[in-house]
Amino acid sequence: MALSIKKLLVSQPRPSSEKSPYFEIADKYGIEIDFRPFIKVEALSAKEFRQQRVSILDHSAIVFTARTAIDHFFHLCEELRTTIPETMKYFCMTEAIAVYLQKYIVYRKRKIFYGQTGKLEDLVTIIGKHVKEKYLVPVSDVHKDDLFILLDAKKITYTKAVMYRTVSNDFSKEEKFDYDMLVFFSPSGISSLLKNFPDFKQEDIRIGCFGPTTAKAVLDAGLRLDVEAPTPEAPSMTAALEQFLKKEFDENKKNGNP
């Protein structure tokens, strides 16, 4: 049963495991899936960081909401030749992010705290138990202010420091863009699509996305949203894709389409 979707672009890096559900979907429905991030993260140079007039060592605690922030924080410290004292405290969104610190520090010798649920409120509750600390929060140039609103409410002393930026991962003129479906995971991906292809016309191209802010970006750009996750029925993007393709497959079968 031929599907209208023959070639699909997922705007994320290729999965490291061959057991990824994406590959199972490709085999099951006979479609080609390419992986190509529409955005990439770049480090700020030491010179760019200094322009913010932020002194890392004026702080007694660091807040990490993502592994990306950890990587860029320690790389920037190295470029600035700043040695982080053993007394520095670390507050992380999740245990997985906290454990990632082992890449840069001797984990058992440091004071590390993390939330249990992965929710900002949980992290801020823990931070609220250490109100005397001066917190440094590494962020991207494009970031949400949800965390800072919560910190302000608890009258926490903090400094927001931009340490990396999100930029469009531009397509070359030689790259073919002949996809039947595009899948996005952030509003930045939608912005990059329109930057790369200012005359983009959706027509029969299906668009799928993950998350409400990405869905809003799709609609705000005047595009049609065909597949959305998470939903109660499809908690992941791959589950939503599977549902979408299965529905079309079943309809073709019912109608006797070859």
Description:
The chain is of the alpha/beta class and 258 residues long. The chain has nine helices and eleven strands. The chain starts with 6 loop residues before the first strand and ends with a helix.
List the helices and strands and how they pair.
Elements: E1 7-10, H1 21-29, E2 32-35, E3 39-43, H2 46-50, E4 61-64, H3 67-80, E5 89-92, H4 95-100, E6 111-114, H5 120-127, E7 135-140, H6 146-153, E8 158-168, E9 181-184, H7 187-196, E10 206-210, H8 212-220, E11 227-229, H9 237-255
Helix pairs in contact: 1-9, 5-6, 7-8
The gist of it:
With 258 residues, the protein is of the alpha/beta class. It has helices at 21-29, 46-50, 67-80, 95-100, 120-127, 146-153, 187-196, 212-220, 237-255; strands at residues 7-10, 32-35, 39-43, 61-64, 89-92, 111-114, 135-140, 158-168, 181-184, 206-210, 227-229. The protein has nine helices and eleven strands.
First and last CA, distance: 5 Å
Order of helices and strands: EHEEHEHEHEHEHEEHEHEH
Shape: elongated
Q: Quick one: biggest sheet?
A: 6 strands, mixed
* Count of individual beta strands: 11
**Class based on secondary structure composition and strand pairing:** alpha/beta
* Helical percentage: 25-40%
Average of per-residue pLDDT values: 92
> Per DSSP, what share of the residues sits in E-state strands of 2 or more residues?
15-25%
Low-confidence regions: none
User: What oligomeric state best describes the polypeptide chains here?
Assistant: single chain
Computed over alpha carbons, the radius of gyration is 22 Å
Question: How many individual helices?
Answer: 9
Biggest sheet strand line-up: 3-8-7-4-5-6
